[in-house]
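Why does residue order matter? Because the sequence determines the fold. Keep that principle in mind as you read this record.
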Amino acid sequence: MSLLKRWGMSAAVVFLLAAAALAVFVPWLTRLRWALVIVAGVLIIATAAANWREGASFLGRRGTRYGASAALLVVLALGIVVMANAVSLRYSARWDLTENKRHSLASQTVKVLQGLKTPVEVIAFFRSDQPGKRVAEDLLKQYASASKGKLTHRMEDPDRSPGLAKRLGVESYGTLVLQSGEKSEKVLDAEEERLTNALVKVTRSGKRIVYVLKGHGEREIGNTERPGLSRAKDELEKVNYEVKDLVLARDPKVPADASVLIIAGPRTDLFPQELEAIDAYLSRGGKVFFMADPFQAEGLAKYLTKYGITLGNDVVIELSPIGRLFGVGPEVPVINQYEQHPITKDLGGVMTLFPITRSVQLSKAQVRGVAPQVLARSSQQSWGETDRAGLQRGEVKPDANDTPGPVPVAAVVTLDVLPGAGAKSEGATEAGAKAEDQMPAKARIVVVGTSNLATNQFLGAQGNRDFFLNVVSWLADEADQVAVRPRDTRQNPIFISEAQSQAVLWLSLLVLPGAVMVCGIFVVVSRRRQK
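Structure:
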């Protein structure tokens, strides 16, 4: 019995180690391994029974109880960690607590991923020690989760897989290759905007063509200066649009392959044959984006009345302190009031700037087959200034002749198109064309009171890019592109007024140090009184 008391537990440990060694080195001796485990278990029970008096005395000690409590807490903590990891492997969840959800996928990305019709594979080429690998992998995991299995990804080391890298044309570390069927696109940086744009390109068949009218002093897509539209052209091309100039005066017919026609701030009136060509384009289900600047091409205002839109002969002025935060004057109203519409559905809380804009109101007389709707309005502190001389002098104030705020600055129009009026698309089958003719077609028009919002100077201001691209995407029937684009992950600056900056200065230099000093004096005085 004394031998069992002294050496029983040691023998049990030896038998357990022997069973473990058999499991590693001789796994086919299953019966012997389990026999050793059973013998070890019997020895542990017998040794515990033989030493129960000593064990009871040991367990009764205070140190033992404290040690047991600590061990129990450690076991519970480890159990919680193990359970949490097991649950997270099966059910993952993310919480983005940043103000503008900078670590979450943008609504445009989610729409594109949820609308995938064909599988997409992403191959990311990173070295194992490359700093950006983890960021790229985390981003791709979010893409895969939102796509519901349509998008898969894998990480490859170009040094270990040089043949694959050469076959896909990868020349630098950090390159991502997207493949879908016969199409492939390369992305040189793991950024959400570039990745989503590449995803659109590999999953879209062909390109939609956007024509920009030219010949009347409009904003030009080839102009890289501040008043040009070169940046807007680049943004459209990123999401798989093809942008072309169109001179209707030379050939008064909108091409059949036009998805959208943009008329960006003409300075002179369009010719009658050009307006007739636009009417013909709308009659077959066309989509037109009018940007009509104040006091220019007034014939355009007369033309739009038959589509239920009245352009004001004014400039919207806003005396709001919000504009001063952006460093703009009263002639640049800050718009954050939108009506319910697919274009503005995801723009809640996003401000847009409408520099030097006129009012865009709905006509009082209703036109059959025409459904106009206001899209955006200025603030209550704004008005439509009609005194052109006062505007030139820089002296404006609201009067009875002005339009009181909120002033509409953008509107949309949906037009009924007669069945059979739409032109057949190239390559369409006869049965497909007949089915299309039987469906009620809709032409679309969007009118804004300024072309400045899409210029190189203002396109990057706040939500202007999203607003512009949403308009074009809605006109082109690209529902998954009507959303807020991926955000810049860099820190956004904080805009504060002069009074707020003074408050921050005095708070840090006087209030907080003074409060600490007063508390210290109070504690010292209290202790002296107690002595």
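The CA atoms of residues 99 and 492 lie 10 Å apart.
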